[in-house]
Amino acid sequence: xxxxxxxxxxxxxxxxxxxxxxxxxxxxxxxxxxxxxxxxxxxxxxxxxxxxxxxxxxxxxxxxxxxxxxxxxxxxxxxxxxxxxxxxxxxxxxxxxxxxxxxxxxxxxxxxxxxxxxxxxxxxxxxxxxxxxxxxx
Length: 137
Fold this sequence. Notes:
The protein has 137 residues and is mainly alpha-helical. It has helices spanning 3-10, 14-23, 37-45, 50-57, 61-70, 84-92, 97-104, 108-117, 129-134.
């Protein structure tokens, strides 16, 4: 059990439990890291995404990347599914962007950001054609 679990059961403070255990010569078991190198390798090979690995282990995406960093490697980003031709079709289609976002499995904000990255024409205020077509001012 952890000090916190013992403190909850006994109704004492966690620090009190820690002090008594230290006085009795009891030590904590070293914590095992939640993310192992095998999990990082699964993400690198593409069998699971980093988000899927993080969800399976109950940790954050950053924790998976940090484990990779600690082992001297990194997990490459997936290439974007939203290439220029896909975005061009979205712009030329007259369907609402919210519908296009659902069909592509992304958020409308992702569509706006990707259009800006690809250099699709926009107005002076930095909004892309996608925002003007939606009617967002």
